[in-house]
Design a protein that fits this description.
mainly alpha, 102 residues
């Protein structure tokens, strides 16, 4: 084995080792995130969660739309766009307080 092959093997070995470490760390982070979601009673992405009574009350008030969106995001962990869609749907009747919109 010449010097180039030796260095290539060494670099490849280090790279594989780093990938294994990254994979292991990612698995730990995913497990912690799942535990956090369960603790917060947040549904996995893509599942609708009915809004809390607080969110419903805020959504009914025209000047409280931002507060309703913020409260729904805190309740579900959804992003801004998704939470806004739900709150807008609540305000215009497209989303019920217990069923997903279709």
């Amino acid at each position: 084995m010449n010097a180039i092959e030796t260095w290539t093997a060494l670099i490849l070995g280090i790279g594989i080792f780093q990938l294994i470490r990254i994979h292991s760390r990612l698995s730990q982070v995913e497990a912690k995130l799942q535990a956090l979601l369960l603790h917060l009673n947040a549904e996995p992405e893509g599942k609708y969660q009915p809004p809390s009574d607080e969110v419903l009350a805020l959504a009914r008030e025209p000047k409280q739309q931002i507060a309703a969106i913020k409260a729904y995001r805190e309740q579900t962990g959804l992003g801004l766009k998704e939470a806004k869609e739900v709150v807008d749907g609540l305000r215009n009747g497209a989303v019920s307080d217990s069923a997903p919109k279709h």
